[in-house]
Design a protein that fits this description.
single chain, 353 residues, alpha+beta, five-stranded antiparallel beta sheet, 10 helices, 12 strands
């Protein structure tokens, strides 16, 4: 949910970081401790120790001013999102997050919306509240190894969209960077939440990930500031454009007439991969210019399940390779030796989570 932009050499907090320092004690009182860098009495460790800032955890600067990581009393890591309670979009996001995290919906297996663990109210004299979420990572920091792993990725996303639509909930900004992964189980040492190249404790570089095939993970939709819940008798129309992806055909029409927001989704933005021709027809139907001709998510899920049930184990265990590239002879042999062992061990080719 954040990424490295710089290593701080001057020992000064940026303007946006000062906010987190000033809320350190407020968050700690609610059971959440920010990293050492944001403690009120922080001084740069590399200055104190006379070393380079390069290997110091407290020198890492994140790019996202709205999000920071924290540790809970039980030692687990979470992400905190700051929210201006006077902003209308914040009120929308809080309401939508509460809706999908309600007791009845949060226990539904098909609910792939990021679970909201807690809401922290503003401190006295402030309008900034905090939403507490699990520590999630960009989907692609850990490469997909097999077609079966990608099949599971899309299964969860289609299932999550079906859940939303069945509850008259439209995400409103369903695009590739609003989908995150709970990648923690793939690493024997937790990744640093900002610097993915390092361990959380900065006692070494990030370990190589374990295959999703043997440690299945979950994927989640995030960011609900453009979301809407329609009542059973509401007219399901919305004035376009909305969201970060403006390529949706109905957003290109003159004068932007109101349209049904449910058929417009954009799930993944990656280089084309070999071996996914089995999805071509479904994807083509999902992106038809006329939204009335696109399948509903119930139809998408039914067609997808039927489609993947017809794939062979050999197909599902095949490597994910970018079009025009190859694994090379040693990579090819290594891949198939490993996944043949998984086959012998009875590990499923689709790692369901």
């Amino acid at each position: 949910m954040a990424e490295v932009t710089a290593i701080a050499d001057d020992g000064e907090l940026s303007f946006t970081e000062v906010f987190w320092r000033d809320h350190y004690e407020h968050l700690r009182k609610h059971g959440y401790t920010l990293r050492r860098r944001y403690e009120p009495d922080w001084s740069p460790s590399w200055v104190t120790n006379g070393t380079s800032s390069f290997g110091c955890e407290d020198a890492t600067v994140a790019s996202n001013a709205l999000i920071n990581d924290a540790s809970r009393r039980d030692g687990s890591s979470v992400m905190l999102k700051r929210m201006d309670t006077t902003d209308p979009s914040t009120k929308t996001e809080l309401a939508m997050a509460r809706f999908v995290s309600s007791p009845d919906l949060s226990i539904t297996p098909r609910n792939r919306c990021v679970p909201i663990l807690e809401f922290i109210p503003p401190k006295e004299g402030s309008n900034t509240a905090f939403m507490v979420m699990p520590l999630l990572f960009d989907v692609h920091i850990t490469p997909f190894e097999t077609i079966g792993e990608v099949v599971e990725y899309f299964r969860q996303l289609f299932e999550g969209l079906q859940f939303m639509h069945n509850h008259n909930f439209v995400h409103g900004d369903c695009k590739w960077n609003n989908i995150m992964a709970d990648s923690g189980p793939l690493y024997d040492h937790l990744l640093h939440p900002v610097n993915y190249y390092m361990r959380r404790d900065y006692r070494g570089f990030a370990p190589n990930p374990v295959s999703r095939t043997i440690r299945p993970i979950k994927y989640y939709f995030i960011d609900f500031d453009l979301s809407t819940v329609f009542g059973p008798d509401d007219v399901r129309l919305r004035i376009p454009p909305w969201g970060g992806d403006r390529t949706v055909p109905e957003h290109q029409l003159p004068h932007d007439p109101p349209c049904d927001p449910f058929p417009g989704v954009a799930l993944m933005e990656v280089k084309p991969k070999e071996g996914f021709e089995f999805m071509r027809e479904l994807v083509s139907d999902m992106v038809k210019d006329n939204p009335r001709e696109r399948p509903t998510m119930d139809q998408v899920v039914a067609r997808y399940d039927n489609m993947i049930n017809g794939l062979s184990e050999w197909k599902l265990r095949s490597p994910v390779v970018t079009v025009g590239e190859s694994l090379g002879i040693f990579g090819f042999i290594g891949h198939w030796v490993k996944h043949f062992v998984y086959h012998l061990r009875g590990i499923p080719a689709i790692p369901r989570a």
